[in-house]
Write a structure and sequence with these properties.
With 427 residues, this protein is an alpha/beta fold. It is built from 17 helices and 14 strands. The chain folds into two domains: 192 residues, NAD(P)-binding Rossmann-like Domain (Rossmann fold, 3-Layer(aba) Sandwich), CATH 3.40.50; 165 residues, 3-Layer(aba) Sandwich (Rossmann fold).
Length: 427
């Protein structure tokens, strides 16, 4: 099958690589020429485990090509997958300008009967808007569908190759059949539903996971008031099969490219349809306030930040990525600096990306150098390198002894035995 993926960001590049791996002829299309030139050489525009190997193998066998040319990429495409960004608009809802711009650009080159599938995260009702726009730009028959993505940064290639489920939103049985054939090599249940349900399923999944994080952070707050340990609470309540042990992450709140954006957009969408007093608005508010409250709490515990050297370990928003979008470090480091602290930071992959945003940031090549001479070390991200630190070596490097574990990855007893004052979340 001939497939064109429009947009070579996180979702687009991974999707193009996976579809080409299964023998389809795939074009990755983007208007950013330097990015396309890098991809043509097999260089991923961001760090994601396994992605460059996936791209390079498909480039080598000829199944995958990258271009800036709409005529080249669109004229033979059986399926056109829109994977462009949908940033939040001023009213909080998804801004569809890039989706519409892509449609206007490819419409003149559409092959009759082509399927236009939206993989970008968009609100229900977007397909009807895309159809109306395309009908003003082309006279050939076409179909629309929804193909929401459920990839996690840091494991996106694995998630794309071994999905829990594939969701196909379409009304035409022939379109559903063709998209099922395209996804046939992938494991996981194939769920065929309406486009509106497919689009709502993406927002719903992310909002629910964000809710779990927000919920357990509220429980952690209570644990700190009454002497309970949130990790013990998780272990106890998780034995209930209706609840489970998975996806309880007390800490700094949720970040990244999806959860903050999708929850805010779902809250804005709720307001737009007359449901603005619901749960999603509150989840968003609680998460936005989370880091400020914790920084103030930590300040009280360490006797203030002024004139303290602080090692901040972990800069990306999560492990196995260099993505800085909504990363806790982007709020915590400026807050520490404003309060008078001197910050030295380390991340296995995101040092350079962080320095582009935090231009005066001092970074080092390893965590022990970052901690040298510091009074406080703060673990922000559960990178393998950061949750297996040699505690005696860390303690010897530091001038002080405060160890703040915002991911609850360490045993407090072991940390204390190494000579630290341990501060965790909800414990």
């Amino acid at each position: 099958m001939n497939v064109t993926v429009i947009g070579t960001g996180f979702v687009g590049v991974v999707s193009a690589g996976v579809f080409s791996k299964f023998g389809n002829t795939v074009y990755g299309l983007d208007v950013v020429e330097p990015k396309i030139k890098g991809l043509q050489q097999g260089k991923a525009p961001f760090f994601e485990p396994g992605l460059e190997d996936l791209i390079q193998s498909s480039l080598k066998n000829g199944n995958l090509k990258f271009t800036t040319s709409y005529p080249t990429a669109i004229k033979d495409a059986d399926v056109i997958i829109i994977a462009v960004g949908t940033p939040s608009a001023s009213d909080g809802q998804a801004d569809l300008k890039y989706v519409f711009a892509a449609c206007e650009s490819f419409a003149p080159y559409l092959k009759p009967g082509a399927i236009v599938a939206i993989k970008s995260t968009v609100p229900p009702g977007t397909n009807a808007k895309v159809e109306a726009l395309l009908q003003t730009k082309t006279h050939v028959p076409f179909h629309t569908a929804s193909l929401p993505e459920f990839l996690k940064e840091g494991s996106a290639v694995h998630d794309a190759l071994y999905p829990d489920r594939v969701v196909i939103g379409a009304r035409d049985p022939d379109v559903t059949h063709k998209l099922l054939k395209l996804h046939q090599p992938l494991p996981g249940e194939k769920i065929t539903i309406t486009p509106e349900s497919a689009q709502m399923s993406k927002y719903s999944a992310n909002a629910y996971l964000a809710q779990r994080i927000t919920f357990i952070n509220q429980i952690a707050n209570l644990c700190e008031k009454n002497g309970a340990d949130v990790q013990e609470v998780i272990r106890a309540m998780g034995q209930d099969k209706r609840i489970g042990q998975h996806y309880w992450y007390p800490g700094l709140g949720y970040g990244g490219s999806c959860f903050p954006k999708d929850v805010k957009e779902l809250a804005a969408y709720s307001r737009a349809v007359g449901e603005g007093d619901g749960l999603f608005v509150k989840i968003d508010q609680l998460n936005d306030k989370r880091i400020t409250k914790l920084i103030d709490k930590f300040a009280a515990q360490v006797g203030g930040w002024k004139n303290k050297q602080v090692a901040v370990l972990g800069l990306a928003f999560k492990p196995n990525t260099d993505d800085m979008r909504e990363a806790p470090s982007l709020k915590i480091i400026p807050a520490l600096t404003k309060a008078g602290a001197q910050v030295v930071a380390y991340d296995p992959k995101a040092n350079q990306a962080a320095k582009v945003i935090l231009q005066n940031l001092h970074t080092t090549d390893d965590p022990y150098t970052a901690a040298a001479g510091s009074q406080v070390t703060i673990i922000l991200v559960e990178w393998p390198e950061l949750i297996s630190l040699e505690l005696p070596k860390l303690k010897a490097a530091m001038r002080g002894n405060v160890f703040i574990d915002t991911r609850n990855q360490y045993d407090p007893t072991e940390v204390t035995a190494a000579g630290f004052e341990y501060i965790g979340i909800g414990r």
